[in-house]
Amino acid sequence: MASCCHGCCPYGAKQNCKRWVVGWLIGLALAAVLAAIIVVVLRFGVNPHVEAKIVDARLNGFAFAFATRPTNASVFAFNISVALAIRNPSGAYMQHTKPLVATFVFHDRRLYNATVASAGHRQKPLKTKVQVVDVVGEVPANVLDAAAVDDFRKQNTTGVFSIEVRLSGEITYRGLDHIGNKRKLGFSCPLGLPIAPPGPEVVVFYEVNCEAQGPDRIYF
Q: pLDDT digits over 59-106, tens only?
């Protein structure tokens, strides 16, 4: 009776043992190929994405002024509030790998950066989260170049100001970040806002869907 090779196939002959080893190696190779295919599909076939829109906004102040401290230099002051809705349309947990930042822009001049979601923040599948962003601040008047100043004067006459909110960040689906499946975000949310009257009076606002933009439109 033929002997078995070191106990690898206790019930078969030596020839059967060799076949068993070859079959085991082939199975291992196929499993490795299948795992590689799965990784490639997850890395390049699954594209993390979000949807964004502004559901409410209010412009309480938008004008040139004089700073009282430390000098009487001319500044451009603003007071803007927006309610930003971020939706995760997928069936997987979304995770921010970089902060989600809202940049407030007038005539392509950056006025303010506000963090909407910090790095590591997670959002449940198929859920929408509304973040209220209040921006009150000022920048030196020379941040607005001559063209921006001219545009401001024209819009000040009409009473409606064109302000853009640009969103930038980076996301992944939870569990896929370690294979490099990340996507940079860029959105443009154009707004046309009048100066709100003093007090609690409601200003009618119609939702604005944010449009996806390329990296060249991202400020932060």
A: 999 999 876 555 567 899 999 999 999 999 988 888 999 999 999 999
Q: Any idea of the CA torsion for 113, 145, 216, 85, to the nearest 10 degrees?
A: 40
Q: Taking Cα atoms as reference points, which of 61, 171, 191 lies closest to residue 116? A: 171
**H helical segments located in the chain:** 14-40, 146-158
Query: For residues 75 and 66, what is the distance between their CA atoms, to the nearest angstrom?
Result: 6
Using alpha carbons, select from 173, 197, 168, 16 the residue that is nearest to residue 102. 168
What is the phi-psi region of residue 196: left when phi exceeds 0, alpha when psi lies from -120 to 50, beta otherwise?
beta
> How far is C-alpha 213 from the geometric centre of its chain's CA atoms?
11
Cα end-to-end span (Å), the chain: 77
Give the Cα separation of 22 and 78 in Å (integer): 73
pTM summary value: 0.74
Q: Do residues 167 and 100 touch, judged by C-beta distance below 8 A?
A: yes
Nearest residue to 101 (alpha-carbon basis) of 133, 73, 71, 78: 133
